[in-house]
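STRUCTURE:
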């Protein structure tokens, strides 16, 4: 069972790579100015993690539940972020560039964020950067590069294959997630409270708001694409790191709550953003 979900994610990320055009990804990145990147560092790596700690203080959550929200906030760049962006009508090439940028910085920044947060609570938690890099490479970089290579050297095959890869990957992923939650039902029973979904909603909205406040852009498509990406946190990485380095089983319900709640929040925000773009179609990047 533990291989089904990663395999589905790998297939879907290969299909993402098949859909990308490197020149367009680079072009989107070049449109971003230094002030955008500075704001993105804060909005991507620091604000959501800090918000997870704050929510753990203001909501009646125990330390393990707060740790779960914190690790979700500290882990940006869900592997399926780019595909989700494309399905919602946003800029897939900007999302891909943002995902690669975040993936390269995560092994550097995430261990430092976790270390500082641990010290604030009397703990010394050091996550070796190579562990984070290995997870990101397996889940993101390798399948993306494979998809790009297939699109480059086998364009006709890639054009046809991307459709059925998406279908097969989504079916297997859906079945795998449902089965995983079913097998985990005993571990989650009695640990889920109404405060965890509320914390998940506030964390997702806070991640979106961080982009709105810290990334100054006059182009709604740019800001909305980045906002949706930022709210789509890497729950798989959060589960791995919280279990391996904090050994807090109570963190799992908070992470699971975010995994379940976030898609609904993102769906509502996507509808709202598309409505706003329709009302302001002439905006350009500032």
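SEQUENCE:
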């Amino acid at each position: 069972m533990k291989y089904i979900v990663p395999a589905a994610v790998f297939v879907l990320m290969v299909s993402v790579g098949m859909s990308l055009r490197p020149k367009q990804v680079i072009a989107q990145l070049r449109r971003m100015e230094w002030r955008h990147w500075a704001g993105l560092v804060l909005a991507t790596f620091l604000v959501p993690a800090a918000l997870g700690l704050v929510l753990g203080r203001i909501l009646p959550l125990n330390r393990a539940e707060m740790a779960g929200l914190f690790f979700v906030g500290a882990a940006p760049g869900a592997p399926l972020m780019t595909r989700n962006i494309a399905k919602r009508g946003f800029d897939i090439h900007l999302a891909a560039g943002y995902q690669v940028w975040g993936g390269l910085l995560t092994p550097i920044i995430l261990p430092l964020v976790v270390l500082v947060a641990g010290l604030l609570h009397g703990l010394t938690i050091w996550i070796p950067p190579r562990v984070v890099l290995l997870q990101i490479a397996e889940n993101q970089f390798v399948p993306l590069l494979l998809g790009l290579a297939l699109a480059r050297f086998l364009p006709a095959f890639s054009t046809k294959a991307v459709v059925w890869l998406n279908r097969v990957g989504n079916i297997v992923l859906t079945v795998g997630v449902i089965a995983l939650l079913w097998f985990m039902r005993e571990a989650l029973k009695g640990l889920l409270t109404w405060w965890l979904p509320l914390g998940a909603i506030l964390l997702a909205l806070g991640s979106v708001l961080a982009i709105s406040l810290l990334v100054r852009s006059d182009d709604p498509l740019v800001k909305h694409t980045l906002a949706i990406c930022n709210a789509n946190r890497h729950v798989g990485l959060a589960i791995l790191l919280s279990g391996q380095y904090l050994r807090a089983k109570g963190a799992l319900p908070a992470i699971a709550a975010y995994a379940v709640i976030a898609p609904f929040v993102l769906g509502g925000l996507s509808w709202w953003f598309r409505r706003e773009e329709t009302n302001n179609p002439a905006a350009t990047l500032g």
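REMARK: The chain has a mean pLDDT of 84.
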